[in-house]
Design brief:
The chain has 248 residues and is α/β, with parallel strands linked by helices. Helix content is 30%, strand content 21%. The chain folds into 2 domains: 151 residues, Alpha/beta knot (3-Layer(aba) Sandwich), CATH 3.40.1280.10; 60 residues, Trp Operon Repressor, Chain A. It binds S-adenosylmethionine. S-adenosylmethionine (SAM) binds next to strand 5 and strand 7.
Length: 248
C-alpha cells in the first residue's frame, strides 16, 4: 500500500506547498506517496462554522474545539491503526529515529493546531501523539507537519537516488555528518582538503569519520554522550551500547 499522509488543517490551501517541488514533489507526482488534506472547518456544525472558542479559565487567544476536531478526525480515520500525530511545541522532539519509524509504516494522520492550542480532551480521547519540531513557537502546525512529512518522504524507497546518502547523513548513526566539498578546487583561497582528492578511499573514510566525531563532540555534546560504540567481546562478537557520559 502506498505511504500517505493525511493532514487536518484550517488551511488546506497551504498544501502541498514546498512538498510539491524537488524530491518530494516528483515522488508525489509519480505516486510514490500520497497526500490528503481535510479542512477542519468542514466539521463545524453551527451556522458560523466556528472551530474555536475562548479558553476555559480565561486568558488570551482562542482554543480549537474538541467536538469539531474529533468529528474531523473521525471523518477521515475512525478505525485505522495509522499513527495519529498532533504538531505541538509541547510534544516529544521529532528525531530521525521516529521519522524512520513513521516512514516504515502506512503513513500518519497529522493534526495541525492553530490559535493558543487544542482542547486537551480531544488529544486524550483520540490518543494523539504530540510531536514538536523544536523549542520555538510557530503560528500553526502546518509548517511543522510539512517538515515531518518531508523528512519521512525522502526515506521512502525510490525517492532518493543513492541509499548511501540517507545512511551516511546526520543523525542516521547518532552523529552529525562530516563537511562536504565540491569543485572548484580553490574557493577564495580555500582549497578542498587534499585527502578528499587523493583517491585513497580508506583515508577518505577515516578522515570523514574523524570529522564526524569532532563536529558532534563540539556542537552536540548531548548526541556525543549517547553515541553507539562498538565493543568487541572475548569471542570477537560486537554489540552496540550507549557510551557513558563520563568517558569523554
Ligand atoms: N500556546 C501554545 C504553546 O505555548 O504551547 C502554542 C500554540 S502555537 C501559536 C499554534 C500551533 O502551532 C500549535 O497548536 C501547534 O500545532 C503549532 N506549533 C507551534 N510551534 C510548534 C513546534 N515547535 N512544533 C510543532 N508544532 C508547533
Amino acid at each position: 500500500m502506498t505511504w500517505r499522509a493525511t493532514v487536518l488543517t484550517l488551511f488546506p490551501e497551504m498544501f502541498p506547498g514546498p512538498l510539491g517541488v524537488s524530491l518530494a514533489g516528483r515522488a508525489l507526482a509519480s505516486g510514490v506517496w500520497g497526500l490528503e488534506t481535510r479542512d477542519i472547518r468542514a466539521s463545524a456544525t453551527d451556522r458560523h462554522r466556528s472551530v474555536d472558542d475562548t479558553p476555559a479559565g480565561g486568558g488570551p487567544g482562542m482554543v480549537l474545539r474538541a467536538d469539531v476536531l474529533a468529528a474531523a478526525i473521525d471523518a477521515v480515520d475512525a478505525s485505522s491503526d495509522r499513527p495519529r500525530l498532533v504538531m505541538s511545541p509541547r510534544g516529544r522532539p521529532l528525531s530521525q529515529a521516529r521519522v524512520a519509524e513513521l516512514a516504515a509504516g502506512p503513513g500518519p494522520l497529522i493534526v495541525c493546531g492553530r490559535f493558543e492550542g487544542i482542547d486537551q480532551r480531544v488529544i486524550d480521547a483520540r490518543q494523539l501523539e504530540e510531536v514538536s519540531i523544536g523549542d520555538y513557537v510557530l503560528s500553526g502546525g502546518e509548517i511543522a507537519a510539512m517538515a515531518l512529512i518531508d523528512a519521512c518522504v525522502r526515506l521512502l524507497p525510490g525517492v532518493m537516488g543513492k541509499l548511501a546518502s540517507s545512511t551516511e547523513e546526520s543523525f542516521s548513526a547518532g552523529l552529525l555528518e562530516y563537511p562536504q566539498y565540491t569543485r572548484p578546487q580553490m574557493f577564495e583561497g580555500r582549497p578542498i582538503p587534499d585527502i578528499l582528492t587523493s583517491g585513497d578511499h580508506a583515508r577518505v573514510a577515516a578522515w570523514r569519520q574523524a570529522e564526524t566525531e569532532a563536529l558532534t563532540r563540539a556542537r552536540r555534546p548531548d548526541l556525543w554522550a549517547l553515541r553507539p560504540v562498538q565493543i568487541t567481546g572475548p569471542k570477537s562478537e560486537s554489540r552496540k551500547t550507549p557510551k557513558n557520559k563520563t568517558d569523554g
